[in-house]
Design brief:
This protein has a single domain, classed as Glutaredoxin, CATH 3.40.30.10. The protein contains 4 helices and 5 strands; from the N terminus they run E-H-E-H-E-H-E-E-H. Helix 2 links the parallel strand 2 and strand 3. The longest helix is centred in the middle third of the chain and has 16 residues. It has 106 residues and is α/β, with parallel strands linked by helices. It has a 5-stranded mixed β-sheet, with helices on one face. It is globular, with a radius of gyration of 12 Å.
């Protein structure tokens, strides 16, 4: 299951030592809801290799503003605490897996 990421726990997730994929989403966003099953599947598949999290932009404005999130879904990829890749909009699962695999294998 994807981890709930908030303004208060983002830093600890970022500095966990594992690659981090964060899905910036909102309950009212249709494309975000369409991506939710993909995010959950990836959370299971990458369990132990990476952290997959979801951050509700309405409830967590600080992190959303920090990374200039203006469109959702936006999926950010971090490695060693650094933003290394980004995907804006709903995309097929294989595109996200490819981007995350690049971080897991780095």
């Amino acid at each position: 299951m994807a981890v709930e990421i908030t303004d208060s726990n983002f830093e600890s997730m970022l500095n966990s030592g594992k690659p981090l994929m964060v899905d910036f989403w909102a309950q009212w966003c249709g494309p975000c809801l369409a991506m939710a099953p993909v995010i959950e599947e990836m959370a299971k598949e990458f369990d132990g290799k990476a952290i997959i999290g979801k951050l509700d932009v309405d409830s967590n404005p600080q992190v959303s503003q920090q990374f200039g999130i203006r469109n959702i879904p936006s999926i950010l990829f971090f490695n060693n605490g650094v933003l290394v890749d980004k995907q804006v909009g709903a995309v097929p699962k294989n595109m996200l897996v490819k981007k995350l695999n690049a971080q897991v294998e780095a």
